[in-house]
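Quick start: read one record
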Amino acid sequence: MGKVVLTGGGTAGHVTANIALIPRMKKDGYEVYYIGSYDGIEKKMVEAEGIPYTGISTGKLRRYFDVKNFSDPIRVLKGYNEARKALEEIKPDIVFSKGGFVAVPVVWAARSLHIPVVSHESDMTPGLANRLSVRACDKICCNFPETLANLPKGKAVLTGSPIREKLLQGTREEGLEMTGFDGKKPVLMIIGGSLGSVAINNAVRELLPRFLEDFDIVHVCGKNNLDESLKDTKGYKQYEFLTNGLRNLYALADVVISRAGANVICELVALKKPNILIPLPLDASRGDQILNAESFEKQGFSYVLDQHKMEEDIELLYKAVHEVYLKKSGYIIAMQNSDQANGVDRVLQVLRDVVRENQEKNS
């Protein structure tokens, strides 16, 4: 028992792991606080959990030239001072950072006050914000075995990613009720993130008549990506985005087509869902999704398909879905034997160990 400050923000992915930890922390008797940006996505998400929230100034750290590069360091310094003041008032036993640029001043402020820090790196290679925080962290939790080699020896711990407990509580029956499917066919689910994926959406819809011969299809296509001409298609249900209902669609799914963002693929492993990953290509990202997908393929969790190859030959996606469905038991067994299924227990154990070691060192 004690006090813990969570930090991280900028995107939903930098907040969901923190939110996954909150119910267990409360159950274990921790007082939980959050430090984020003044009005970032994390503010609304965290306040919905009933957690005391402190907003600080933040600036983006860029690898490229931008006029804001001259003003943002001032914002970061202001954020550091605000974070230091908040930490002095809260007096936490530990800070847990999920990354994002708002976390950097919080982590370094904690370091300056001798408050232990644990961070979590979702991707195989650390992002810029986490790389800037490494020296200030006591431990760094990771999703991928390969990440251990990219971080200082003795600091990295393979924990997997904390998964929201609610996501594991969906039921096939509620999924059938949501979609109106009769349950006679296996279900293919497509999910491309909150903004969706035009490339994946187009490929799935081009193959739709053939897929529907063998599957019912749930398509989470992203904001503004609904195809009204398909709304009455039997066996095909599309959604822009889902929060609470997503757990029931996962429970219903037999095979999932997805991007390879760290959070969603860790959810797939926790839920034991055979999957085809189509990572963002290098011309649209820093390559982290490609590395994530390659790791999961190597461990036997996923079938990986190159987006550009899929766009050149749509048949590759059709074949991939049928191959994964036929071999689904092998993927499920590999995921059942994984140490990356759900990181809640492992991350909490790391936090407890670091607090204990810090108390012993200072006693």
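The longest strand covers residues 31-37.
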